[in-house]
Amino acid sequence: MRNLFKINIPVLLLSLVILSISTSAKPESSNASLEEIDLGISVTLKEWYENQSGLTGDDEVFGAYVTLPIENELYIGLASARPAENSGDGAYFAKFDGTQISGIGHFDEQGIHEMIWDGEVIHVAGTDPHDVITGGNNWDTGNHYHYSLDNHTLTKYRDPVNGLVYAFHSWGLWKDGNILYAAVSSHDGSYPSDCISGVTCKGQIFSSNDNGITWEF
């Protein structure tokens, strides 16, 4: 008689393992609480931001939009603009050493939303290039920033030929080996007052092999 039932042993074992995990896993809860950090200042964070940067913090949307812990310090991106929002008059970089917050410098952006540490420098994505002189957008090229922990310098890289050409929002950064990648929104050179997705505006991945000084896609 032919055996009508064939058993796939590896699949059976995998199914039993999955069943065991699903039946034994139980949700856990904790009573952890959040505590506001004492930044070591006598004014509000928005007031400190305004005093340090000379910028105006919006009462509704001002805040720390991105933080990055490195060793015993917390690096903070402060701004008054949400992603892809035409508001805010700049962004500011600060750090907290566990005792007191201190200022580092300005970003020529309407906001700040992404930064990563590669073991040598902090890379900061240009969220929305901002012309600090005219107060308008500066969308012919995207910005990229380095902060060196060794010499405490903040440097902006902007190359209209070999840089983030026509990138008006940088959303994400990641690094694989010696290659740095940036996920951006870009336009076709018509400056997107009215974006047509996939036609005048699109998403792109740029790469850099010199730490964000120059880019290609």
UniProtKB/TrEMBL annotation:
Name the record gives this protein: PKD domain-containing protein
Organism of this sequence: marine sediment metagenome
